[in-house]
Amino acid sequence: MGEVMLQVADLAVTFRRGGDAVHAVQDVSFSVAQGESFGIVGESGSGKSTVLRAICALAPTSAGTIRLRDAPLATPRPARFFRQVQMVFQDPYASLHPRHTIDRVLSEPLAIHGFDRREERIERALEEVGLGGGFRFRYPHQLSGGQRQRVAVARALILEPEVLLLDEPTSALDASIQAEVLNLLDRLRAERGLTYVMVSHDLAVVAHMCDRLMVMQHGRAIEELSRAALAAHRAETDYTRKLLSASEGYTPAEAS
């Protein structure tokens, strides 16, 4: 593995609800090497998606530090941060503007960040995610769920980032389509040397995609495991063992 790409230390995220403080994330620390795929697993409400949102400054950090290539991140994040780090959300329908063509969806980030050769970049982005140029002038409602998520991946990659934050990127898709999108993400990481942080409630998905993973419960990190330890069912906590047995038909892919 290369140098440390992303480092999160003692992260806390606190939301205010009325007069109450909700501690969504407490004392979470992890680091991800360049080119690594790191998973964060836990049940709904465990704080895993909030960690990704905090990295992008979409959730309020109440303590801790987040560093990218050893440089602390400023809040709000500068424009160059989004050239380096992009997020793919869970629901591809909600994350694409319903009245914008795919061409517009892909050209907007290029315009915002001042990229040249936009035409060429849009065509290449669609090609890379397995959609031809015929999809350029369609609208999201004319695409299947899997095709929409491919567009969301293309939009994230079009700025040539180094890090992709993947928030349950396949949980809204049918099982057969899930595998296609995961294989696409795997291939893109290998081809581009990308670094992934992937959140999922599904241990089997993370085992397929990630070199290491962190298990979260009630806003805290309770265990970190390698893919090999996971495949051998070497979990230290009862909670992780419960997640393992809940992943029925659980067959982690061999490390590629």
Describe the model.
This protein has 256 residues and is α/β, with parallel strands linked by helices. The protein has one domain (4-246): 3-Layer(aba) Sandwich (Rossmann fold). The protein is built from ten helices and ten strands. The protein has helices spanning 48-55, 79-84, 92-95, 102-112, 118-128, 145-157, 175-192, 203-209, 227-231, 238-246; strands at residues 4-17, 20-33, 37-41, 61-68, 71-72, 85-88, 163-167, 195-200, 212-217, 220-226. The chain has a six-stranded mixed sheet, with helices on both faces. Strands 2-1-4-5 form a four-stranded antiparallel sheet. Strand 9 and strand 10 (220-226) form a beta hairpin. The longest helix has 18 residues, at 175-192. The protein is globular, with a radius of gyration of 18 Å.
